[in-house]
Amino acid sequence: MFHTRTSGKFLAVVAGGALLLSACAGEDSANKPEASGSASASAPAASTITYAYEQEFHSYNGNTAAENATRNNGPLQRVLAGFWFYGENGEITPDKDFGSYEKTSDSPLTVEYTFNDKAVWSDGTPIDCDDALLFWAYKSGKLPAFSTAGTTGVEDVKLPECNKGEKKFTFVYNKPFADWHANGPGATELLPAHIVAKQGGLSEDEFIAAVKATDKKKLEKAAKFFNDGWIAEGALPAADLIPASGPYKLSKLDAGQSLTFVANDKWWGTPAATPTIVERFIALDEQAQALQNREVQIIEPQPGPDVLNQLKALEGVKVNNTTQYTYEHLDFNFDSSEFKDKALREAFAKCVPRQLIVDNLIKPVAPEAKTLDIRNVAPFQSNHAAVVQASGGPGAYAQQDIEGAKAILEKAGKTGLEVKIGYQTPNPRRTSEVQLIKDSCDKAGFKVVDGGSEDFFGTVMPAGNFDVALFAWAGSSLVSGWGSTYTTPTKCDGESKGNNNGCYSNKKIDELVKKLNATVDVAAQDPILAEIEKILWADLATIPLFQHPGLSAWDETVQNVIPNPAQSTITWNMDKWSAA
Amino acid sequence: MIVFIARRLVISFFVLLAATVIMFVLTALSGDPLEDLRQDNSPNRAAKIADRTERMQLDDPLPVRYLSWLGNVVRGDLGVNRDGHDVGVMLGDALSATLQLVVAATVMAIIIGIVIGIVSALRQYSGFDYSVTFAAFICFSLPVFWVAVMLKQYMAIEFNNWLKDPSIPPTVIGALALLGGLVFGALTTGDRRRRLLSFAVGLAVTGALFTLLSVTRWFADPGFGLPLLLAISLAAAVGFTVLSAGLNPRGPLYAALGAAVIGALASEVLTPVLSDPTWLEIFGLALVTVAVCAGLGYALGGLQRRQAVSAAVLTGLFTGGVIFVDRMLQAFNDYSAAVRGRPISTIGARTPNFEGNFWQMNLDSASHLLLPSMALILISLATYTRYSRASMLEVMNQDYVRTARAKGLPERTVVVKHAFRNGLIPITTLMAVDFAGVIGGAVVTETVFGWEGMGKMFITALDQVDPMPVMAFFIVTGTAIVVFNMIADILYAYLDPRIRLS
Asked: Which end of chain A is less congested by CB atoms within 10 angstroms, N or C?
């Protein structure tokens, strides 16, 4: 043992020193004058608005296969303006500031585009013919060196005939295309051709000539720059490579932290309401507290009951509960399960507790949630009510009918039929959904098995090892995207079935989808949509469950924040945001 | 020594090489790299899948993918991740974020942990010791994500709200005073009267301190000012002298006091430099401080010249540190106004686009580092406290400590020279392993506080079944572990001359 007494003295001195330090800290501050301009909470009219997004911006070009993601196109939509954008409720909205377009002929389908006379890139170069040619070059698939996220629609467009410096160009289609109004260069899709040409070692004339001749060799270097040259590796590309054509331009990327937009002084339309917008990269779970501490003013966190209550309890915060385009549904396996028999699909559809699933799992997150009646038009779209009405919606399947299901099963002699519901795990909500389905369908005589698997999308679904699949599709206001989900596949295997995972097939649907995709009059599409939904319900091709809930919240001093269910997210009108 | 290092390096190289094979194979087989695309119902799904398949060489057999990775690494190319991002750039950003985040926290945890551990060892079975043990175990078992959320709520959001009117309610002052009294009481030994007395002193002093801070609204515009600066540095001078040389003879004390006075005065004289310096100037000033203080110690130290030099240098650097903190505190008011009166932040590494002078920029970093550092320190403090307490207790019961006492050495010398240094040996291993681990990042802390560090990079890549970032992560952390273990061995030999490296 050691000497307590002596070490006590030693400690007393150390402690005494500490005491002296802290004691003095108090005395001096008494002499200090009161802070004259002490920090006040209310700052003057905000010159900066900050919003949170979970993923980091990574490329000025969000049109290549790899970079076609919301992390890029969300922030870019008011930087790279176009003839149209996803406006309120995700509807296709023409951008009148940018230019105008109109259909001038139905046969062949011809659309004439005119850039605004004042339209210039933020480096002063006019936006004109060469930019339109670049759009066609990368999106038509005729010049495969340009990486593209998809050629749908543009592959049927003839090379636009326009000359250097012209503000007009025309899309002439080989065949009718239903989504023509969203097929010209929209927001984020029109990129500066003069930069691509210069980096590709070409003059503007040479570039135009090369595209017109689809000269793969001459455009090789330009295409390489198009694919990789705009990627932001830790910082934005040089400022002269990334001019803007919208109200904002990109100013700074702080890797892992934030992306800053400043107002584009060359923008010819309505000026941006707030000079600086900052996007901060913040994980979904952390956004609520960041808003509470006002480090950001606008958030879109992961919807959940806890975060909803947390946000509702905050002072001075507006909470919005609109839904997203994504919807959850059950798909039957028409190829290798008992559900080839329509009677069994009917029985299953009758026992699925659609209302209970919404009540138990969705309403705590989105109190207004309803069951989903149709598949291909989202509840917030303007034509939703009309299509539901015309199609009849779920009809007999709107209400759960366990007795009816039981009767059908008994009649078919299939009581005790094992139903494997497959889905990707881990996903607690889907596990609960399967449990709820099991509780009620087992009463009807099915034997529901939880077929959740960590490799569901990888191997289980492509191989058709499920009776019913539970997952979600991303919807859209366009009609050309989802047709393949319901059209007859050439062969029912992982390679050929595409999005039609259950290999559903109905000749009538095949025809209707073809017809829909060729209907260029938007209003005329609704009856066809209704017809399709009617058959899909009659056939029980799939059972729609609910629209995924969305959640956003913002400081109520920020004006004009309007959430958007499309992939364009809440940033679609950031140039209108203003804060007191 | 050189042979030892060389042999270790060669062996480690082959161990690492073998480990990369295992790591690569395990990562590549850990799931489906195309999973997210399979749920995609956009028309361009096939193109996206083809694009990623080509970039990640998913059609090649694993050994080919590994060898092509290895070939590229040898040429200094870490490859690209599944979206084509340059892994080298990602690694650089992640590493710098992690180092900023964890190095300070780890150093603080080590220093505070060891000091608390030693004090609680010297006060074994006292109230202080029991409290520290209790607190250490609580901290040890706290989940980081929960601590982080609590810190954000109370240390950032509520604190910022409170800063608008920084007066401390009387009940809180009472509780803090009671706590202060208990700490003082627990630290004191002797009979009941003595302990009660120091409890009373602690109670009164803490209570008075916080009342003053509240009444003067010190938190609205914090800072020290010259008199307080002087007082703090003089107290530090006494403290460092007691630790390194003792108060008799007076030489070292005079040297340290001199260092304190010069330092405090310099804070005024150097105002032109200090109003907006650069890191280079700060570093230069630190060097000058060391030189001047060493000179002071040398001149005034007399017989205890070496101890005087170290006391003076430590005092000088400490005073410099206090001046640094003081300047940052003086910048607090402007900074707070610039961030809308909410200076403590919950997320990220800095305020986007914040521009200010040297002190405001540092304050900005500090206010962002505060919460994650506290979370990290709270958790790792426990380990260091327990380890250093145990090792100190063991050393204090050694024969050589008894011998040192028996020959009449003062307790200070026994503790600082004979016990402390020996007690450090086992902790060295812990420190080395900890530092190596720290470079691997703190996944939860980084995620919760929005730092794009090594841990985050690793976990994201693993989640995406993307071997390239995982391998880059592994090369760095694996090398760090090898190197730090070697450093631990070398430190062992330095701390304990009986150990020979061979």
From this structure: N
Q: Are strands A109-115 and A168-172 parallel, antiparallel or unpaired?
A: antiparallel
Residue B6: the pLDDT is 87
- B220 lies in some domain: no
Helix (H) or strand (E) holding B495: helix B467-495
- Backbone region of residue A316 per phi and psi (left: phi > 0; alpha: psi in -120 to 50; beta: other values): left
- In 3D space, the residue among A28, A2, A532 whose CA is nearest the CA of residue B330 turns out to be A28
B92, part of any domain: no
Dihedral of CA atoms A547, A553, A556, A561 in degrees, nearest 10, equals -60
Does position B174 have pLDDT exceeding 80, yes or no? yes
Q: Does pLDDT of A255 surpass 70?
A: yes
CA distance B9 to B151: 42
pLDDT single digits (tens) B56-73: 999 999 999 999 999 999
Cβ neighbours of residue B297 under 8 Å, at least 6 residues apart?
Answer: B252, B255, B256, B259, B305, B308, B309, B310, B311, B312, B313
Mean residue pLDDT across chain A: 87
- Judging contacts by C-beta atoms under 8 Å, the chain B residues touching residue A1 are 397
Mean pLDDT of the A292-317 span: 92
Q: Give the C-alpha distances (Å, rounded to integers) separating A554 from A49, A65, A301.
A: 11, 33, 11
Query: Domain residues for B469?
Result: 2-85+440-495
What pLDDT does B502 receive? 56
DSSP string, A432-457: HHHHHHHHHHHHTT-EEEEEEETTII
User: CB–CB of A295 and B342 under 8 A?
Assistant: yes
Strand A317-320 relative to strand A447-453, pairing = unpaired
Give the Cα separation of A441 and A416 in Å (integer).
10
Which pLDDT value is given to residue B501? 63
Global pTM value: 0.86
- Can you give the pLDDT at residue A477? 83
Which of B37, B40, B44, B118 is most worth mutating to test chain A (most A CB atoms within 10 A of its CB)? B44
Higher pLDDT, A565 or B317: B317
Query: With contact defined as beta carbons under 8 Å apart, do A119 and A166 qualify?
Result: no
Residue A244, pLDDT > 70, answer: yes
Residue among B92, B201, B336 whose CB faces A39 most closely: B336
Residues of B in contact with A4 (CB under 8 A): 189
Q: Is B237 on the interface with A (CB under 8 A)?
A: no
Distance from B76 to chain A by nearest Cα, in Å? 17
Asked if B216's CB is within 8 angstroms of A29's CB, the reply is: yes
User: Which ipTM was obtained for this model?
Assistant: 0.86
pLDDT (mean) for A511-525: 90
Nearest CB to B452; choose among A38, A149, A255: A255
pLDDT above 90 as % of chain B: 43
Q: What is the mean pLDDT of residues B175-200?
A: 87
CB–CB of A256 and B340 under 8 A?
Answer: no
Residue B64: inside a domain: yes
Calculate how close chain B gets to A293, using CA atoms only, in Å: 5
B347: nearest CB among A149, A282, A498: A282
Per the structure, the count of domains in chain B is 1
The pLDDT value given to residue B144: 86
Cβ-based neighbours of A459, under 8 Å, separated by 6 or more: A465, B32
Stretch A124-135: mean pLDDT, rounded?
94
Closest chain B C-alpha to A24 CA, distance in angstroms: 6
Contact B246, B412 (CB under 8 A): yes
Q: Are A138 and A132 in contact (CB under 8 A)?
A: no
Instruction: Give CA–CA dist A301/A303, Å, rounded.
Output: 6
**Does residue B404 sit within a domain?**
no
Banded pLDDT at A25 (limits 50, 70, 90): very low
* Distance between A166 CA and the closest CA of chain B, angstroms: 31
**A23: nearest CA in chain B?**
B209
Residue ranges of B 120-149 with Cβ closer than 8 A to chain A: 122-123, 149
